[in-house]
Amino acid sequence: MILRAGPSDDLVMPIVWVRIYEELNRFVPAHKQKSTFSHNVSEGTTMAQLLDDLGIPSSEVDLVLAGDVSVDLSYKIRDGERISVYPVFEAFEIGSVARIREQPLRETRFLAGVNLAPLAAYLRFLGFDTRLAERALTDADLQAAEAEKRILLTRTGCAGMTRVFVVKAAEPREQLREILTRLDLYRSAARHAWNVTPAEAIQIQSQLRQEVVTRDEIGEVRFVGGVDVSFEKDDRFALAAVAVVSFPELELCDSAVARLPLRFPYVPGLLSFRETPAVLEAIAGLRRVPDLLLCDAQGFAHPRRFGMACHVGVLTGIPSIGVAKSRLLGTHSALPEERGAWVPLLDGNEVIGAVVRTRTGVKPVYVSIGNRVSLATAIDYVLRCCRYRLPETTRWAHKKANRRERRE
Predict the structure, then answer these.
(1) Beta strands 164-166 and 129-132: pairing type?
(2) Most distant CA pair in the chain: distance in Å?
(3) Are 33 and 98 in contact (CB under 8 A)?
(4) pLDDT in tens, 101-124
(5) pLDDT number for residue 187
(6) Of 123, 269, 290, 405, which residue is least crowded by CB atoms under 10 Å?
(7) How far is it, in rounded angstroms, from Cα 45 to Cα 59?
(8) CA–CA dist 30, 20 (Å, integer)
(9) Which helix (H) or strand (E) holds 273?
(10) How many CB atoms lie within 10 A of CB 74?
(11) Which residues of the chain have pLDDT under 50?
(12) What is the pLDDT of residue 35?
């Protein structure tokens, strides 16, 4: 043990100054909660030993700072240091950060104020659990958010929440960048790279396929989005259009178009790696987030059960359906001619989709699950969105894409 002389020449142990943040305070006495307190340590005491001495399980800790430098649990504490202990990464300026572990301990969840709808959409598209307030927040709303450990996103602040992020930027993309940077969320947002080899793309499909939900996880549907993708003649750019219509009226409410360079070759079964980046960019440009997406693409009716409708659905979290104009694989029995008729699409004995007649005497469409929608529900919504052969969402998206092409 290192001993040092104090003002009265008494020998005293080394001291560190400790501050415990947020819910970790429940592990320390009341007089030490949410305040800086002194703590005696011995020579060679590690951060893990300090946490154990304080009664804080290291499994609950995500970040520890010694001064303004992040350290791991093996770090040996020095006399006079200021130690900050965090359960999750909060918003403060510390420069380069090294967390205790590679991934955060728990999922980051947000509650966005009513005036932050575009930001909420961006966060959802990156896969973050984000709830958008549809009115001024009540005490009950704040209590529910606290119980779910959500971070409140606001432009003005809020005294009733433990986790509050005051958004300073005015433009939605800058707001997103501000949050990802200050909360160190870039690793969580990047689900996978797009500039990959075909072999790597197949691996990604196999991994993300495990996240496809084939049952109904869909709430009230008031707005339906349609996705259409085309490629320029020189095959250098993808043009994605998304149109949002009211439901069940099917009146156009919003649309967005995105044009991105192609970074992946044409490989059958891997078309989503050419199309999805532009689709995500277009969705991010919407002012109104759809409750359901109808993609002009395959979904579950795919060799690896992960077509573009699944890809977009998993990455955005929006319930999605594949509505393809042609069959990629599978067999089916004869389909009656009347509107509303359908038969299962089979790959061997497995039902992978449905062949659906959306207009009497007209060629059918091939419907399959994208994500968070059962096949029966998918068929129902497709039929309710069709006035002609294709859903109105697809027709509107195609029109928007064509107008963009003519302007360019």
Answers:
(1) unpaired
(2) 100
(3) no
(4) 444 445 688 999 888 888 887 787
(5) 55
(6) 405
(7) 19
(8) 12
(9) helix 272-284
(10) 8
(11) 1-11, 89-105, 406, 408
(12) 82
Q: Are 386 and 378 in contact (CB under 8 A)?
A: no
Identify which of 387, 345, 385 has the alpha carbon closest to the alpha carbon of residue 367.
345
Q: What is the pLDDT of residue 332?
A: 97
Q: What is the residue whose two structure tokens read 């572990």? A: 101
Give me 129's structure tokens. 């659990």
Rounded Cα–Cα distance for residues 192 and 171 (Å): 26
CA–CA distance from 135 to each of 116, 125, 165, 231, 405 (Å)? Answer: 11, 22, 19, 41, 39
Q: Which residues pair with 292 in a beta bridge?
A: 224
Find out whether 113 and 155 touch, Cβ atoms under 8 Å.
yes
What's the chain's length in residues? Answer: 408
User: For the chain, percent helix, then strand, then coil, each to nearest 5?
Assistant: 30, 25, 45
- H or E element that contains 375: helix 375-384
Which pair of tokens denotes residue 55? 């009664």
Q: How far apart are CA 340 and CA 361, in angstroms?
A: 11
Torsion of CA 145, 125, 269, 262, to 10 degrees: -160
pLDDT of residue 324: 97
